[in-house]
């Protein structure tokens, strides 16, 4: 009987699943950085709720208590941290999120060697969607461009490694160039977006010129600034 039980026992089933996480890179003074987070939340309430967040501490030198204080401040803002990067493991306590490694950065630094690496990235492929992206749906295609023949509803999200082309209205969120493609663009026939982002630089609905709303538009990066203009 015991041998039969061993034969029937099934192995634990493990599945892989990937998520697009926001990576926060705190800068000093931390209080000023937190005020920028507050401003973002004020412009787009609930935007970070339920989303994976990773904290990259490589730009600051925080003690163990300082890290704990930062995590507490983020928790008070309903931002739950999935993991931590850029810090020695000894500075983390067992109650803190785990130390992560091997993540693919969404922002290319401005140094010359990094730019050379960016040029070596394989040219993105493309994804074509013939149906609209409805409210609450998420499309993630980090390998390249995304083309949508319909509209993107309010509360929907499109994430692409390359450019995003929308042949209808964009009422939700569009994030292009997430793997460091700074030349990526966002095109739409009717801009009513909640948020636009390219290579980590973003603008919310309040930042978009009211004169452009409801009209064809494109967004691209000019240095570290996102430009949004009419699409002629």
TrEMBL record:
The keyword Cell cycle applies. Keywords: Cell cycle, Cell division, Septation. The keyword Cell cycle applies. Residues 129-228 form the Septum formation inhibitor MinC C-terminal domain. InterPro entries: CAP/MinC_C (IPR016098), MinC (IPR013033), MinC_C_sf (IPR036145), MinC_N (IPR007874), Septum_form_inhib_MinC_C (IPR005526). It holds the Pfam family MinC_C. Residues 13-65 form the Septum formation inhibitor MinC N-terminal domain. Gene3D superfamilies: 2.160.20.70, 3.30.70.260. Cell division inhibitor that blocks the formation of polar Z ring septums. Rapidly oscillates between the poles of the cell to destabilize FtsZ filaments that have formed before they mature into polar Z rings. Prevents FtsZ polymerization. Interacts with MinD and FtsZ. HAMAP family: MinC. Belongs to the MinC family. This is Probable septum site-determining protein MinC. The lineage of its organism: Bacteria, Pseudomonadati, Pseudomonadota, Alphaproteobacteria, Hyphomicrobiales.
């Amino acid at each position: 009987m015991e041998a039969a039980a061993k034969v029937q026992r099934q192995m634990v089933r493990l599945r892989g699943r990937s998520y697009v996480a926001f990576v926060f890179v705190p800068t000093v003074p931390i209080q000023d950085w937190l005020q920028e987070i507050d401003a973002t939340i004020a412009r787009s309430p609930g935007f970070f709720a339920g989303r994976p967040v990773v904290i990259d501490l490589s730009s600051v030198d925080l003690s163990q208590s300082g890290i704990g204080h930062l995590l507490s401040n983020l928790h008070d803002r309903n931002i739950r941290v999935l993991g931590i990067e850029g810090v020695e493991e000894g500075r983390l306590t067992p109650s803190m999120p785990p130390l992560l490694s091997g993540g693919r950065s969404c922002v290319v630094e401005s140094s010359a060697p990094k730019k050379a690496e960016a040029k070596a990235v394989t040219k993105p492929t493309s994804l074509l969607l013939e149906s609209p992206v409805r409210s609450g749906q998420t499309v993630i295609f980090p390998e390249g461009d995304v083309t949508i023949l319909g509209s993107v509803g309010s509360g929907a999200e499109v994430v692409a490694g390359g450019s995003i082309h929308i042949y209808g209205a964009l009422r939700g969120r569009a994030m292009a160039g997430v793997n460091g493609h700074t030349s990526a663009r966002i095109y739409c026939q009717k801009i009513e977006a909640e948020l636009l982002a390219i290579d980590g630089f973003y603008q919310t609905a309040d930042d978009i010129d009211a004169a452009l709303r409801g009209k064809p538009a494109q967004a691209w990066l000019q240095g570290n600034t996102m430009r949004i203009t009419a699409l002629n």
